[in-house]
Design a protein that fits this description.
The protein has about 220 residues and is mostly helical. The chain has ten helices and no strands.
Amino acid sequence: MECHVGTQCQVGIGCQYGTLCQVSELVNRRTERRRAEIVDVAIQLFAVRGFDETSMSDVAEAAGVSRRTLYRYFETKDDLVFEAPRIWLAVLNGVIDDRKPGESTRDLCRRALLQVADYILETHDTVLAGAAVVATSPSLSARHGRSDAEWSNRYLQLFMADVGDAPGGVLTATTAALALVAAQNALIFVWAAGWPDTDLKSMTVAMLDQVDCLWPEQCR
């Protein structure tokens, strides 16, 4: 088995890169933890001062890092707000990479999105505050669109691998991908608006059931 430096070592003791892979994984965990700490500070600043009124210098000062360090982690203020969807997509991709033998794309995505829901609940304070920032900051609409496009493209790539050259397949796969992203956005909006009286896990199942009829037949 080949071991790729920079990813978690899956070979074990016999891998000549095992130690290096373990060190790299440790560094990755520290980086993600530091990113999360900075995002928590930034979101709270945006919520109190306003997104447009808060500068990257303000974030760096509040987070106790230099501007240079901040920009090493995040290129723009927008990236701070949309860190959560980036991680959610990474969770989705992680489940896809660990696909079970014989698992349909439909079942794979359902399983992945339930894991995303688990992650959201673990970080609900930051997610809720971030959702409020997005809702009250029109300047973030373009960045929100790019985030949606990343999710849509990932779904489309996954669906097209099943659909192939089937007649009408591109339209069916595209419709399903866009509908799933729109449903996810609606889910987060309704869940956040009703928190803490809403159950994200059951709402995720309900959302997936509602869009189930749109799945390409080849993905079932």
